[in-house]
Specification:
2 domains; hpI Integrase, Chain A; four-stranded mixed sheet; disordered N terminus; 426 residues; DNA polymerase, domain 1; alpha+beta
Length: 426
């Protein structure tokens, strides 16, 4: 008797994206068919402007990439067991799957994953953790957001900014978006949730060059730290002087090279090229983890004279000056502690008689100085910005001081009759 076998054919998986008009703005939709039937989901809002789309928006190419990932997931599920459906999956389970996805599949930076995990565990799970995915509505998300605002937006005793609340909403949107792919959630309720209005004043707290020098001088002279309670020997006084010199060098490097605090903490001597006057930013140390910079790319920044002199002086200390050693170290030669550095920074501001500002504002000081000297594309590269729009904020903060004179000169040299005679004769 001839043997027979039954061959199961894999269900075809295919789909397409299309644009759907909505009163609140057009949406990119995805429709596809797999072994479980036909599906349709909202991918995101339509983005047609130039530049990188903000959270929740997609270009047509971006929508296609989203569909391609959905189809890839569907084809993998055809070869394994059917995934659980969204009616039985809780938000907490979906959040854990999303955290796994961003860490292992998307290979996000460790500091980014830790930030996401904190938001999930401290902000989202207490409110939505036990709820099934399909029970989470836009109205419920809006009520939660409104509750944060009505309560003064307090987070551990401190006011929540509109950007922070929107960041929480963005994480929730990403979790539900992943749930659409993995668990077949029909709609992403966070896609229609209201965001807090965010406006940029175009103003920053920055330091002028004389103020930066005053800050560094206060640190170098040790006026930013409390005097020791007990007499100290020569060796200990030398260590304090080295710490003061290092603090001054950190403040100068942050301001005149625009490095982020995590990038300063991971800077090594091999990253400095004194002969070419360059600082290579290769790593960032955040949450006790050394990783690539925030942009994901290595960049090089000019080393101006003030920074070169300070770093050269630092290179003459008795220890921790090898190529693999950190430039800015604690007494054990390890990464400096960020909160302690911030406290010394605030004390140095006060000792120098300067206004209070954040450590990150030193980076803003570099941006406002750099746009007055370098082309925008160069400033973008020096600061490690992903989008030129981020660099443009410094242009708005510091318009060219000679703009009025240049325009006046152009009018004076013009033969146009609209130029008043008294101005033409000036």
């Amino acid at each position: 008797m001839a043997s027979s076998s039954i061959h199961f054919r894999e269900a075809p998986v295919s789909g397409h994206v299309f644009r759907k008009a909505r009163k609140s703005g057009d949406r990119w939709m995805a429709k596809w068919r797999d072994a479980e039937g036909q599906h349709q989901v909202v991918l995101g809002r339509v983005w047609t402007k130039r530049g990188r789309p903000p959270e929740g928006y997609l270009t047509k190419q971006g929508a296609q990439r989203e569909l391609d990932a959905i189809l890839a997931d569907a084809r993998r599920s055809n070869l394994t067991s059917r995934p659980r459906r969204s009616s039985t999956v809780t938000f907490g389970e979906a959040a854990r799957e999303w955290l796994r996805y961003v860490e292992h599949d998307r290979k996000r930076r460790a500091s980014t994953v830790n930030d996401y995990r904190w938001i999930v565990e401290r902000r989202l799970l207490p409110e939505f953790g036990s709820a099934t995915l399909e029970s989470i509505t836009t109205q419920r998300i809006d009520a939660w957001r409104s509750g944060l605002v009505a309560a003064g937006g307090l987070e551990d005793g401190e006011a929540l900014s509109a950007r922070t609340i929107n960041k929480y909403l963005g994480v929730m949107h990403s979790i539900l978006k992943r749930a659409q792919r993995v668990y077949g959630l029909a709609a992403n309720a966070a896609a229609w949730a209201e965001r807090q209005p965010v406006t940029r004043s175009g103003d920053f707290n920055v330091l002028s060059a004389p103020e930066v020098e005053a800050l560094a001088r206060a640190a170098r002279e040790g006026r930013h730290r409390k005097p020791p309670k007990h007499p100290t020997g020569p060796e200990w006084r030398q260590k304090l002087r080295e710490q003061d010199e290092q603090d001054a060098a950190i403040f100068l490097t942050a301001t005149y090279a625009g490095l982020r605090l995590g990038e300063l903490r991971s800077l090594r001597w091999r990253d400095l090229e004194f002969d070419k006057r360059l600082i290579h930013v290769r790593h960032s140390y955040v949450m006790r983890t050394e990783d690539v910079p925030k942009s994901g790319r290595v960049r090089s920044v000019p080393m101006i004279d003030q920074v070169a002199v300070a770093l050269d002086q630092l290179s003459r200390r008795p220890a921790w000056t090898g190529d693999d050693d950190l430039v800015f170290v604690n007494p054990a030669g390890e990464h400096i502690e960020d909160s302690a550095l911030r406290r010394r920074f605030y004390a140095a501001l006060k000792a120098a008689g300067l206004k209070h500002l954040r450590f990150h504002d030193l980076r803003h000081s570099f941006g406002t100085l750099a746009v007055q000297v370098f082309p925008l594309t160069d400033v973008k590269a020096y600061m490690g910005h992903a989008d030129i729009a981020t660099t443009m904020i410094y242009v708005h903060h510091v318009p060219r001081v000679d703009a009025a004179e240049k325009l006046s000169s152009a009018l004076r040299s013009s033969a146009s009759p609209i130029v008043p005679e008294e101005l033409a004769a000036a």
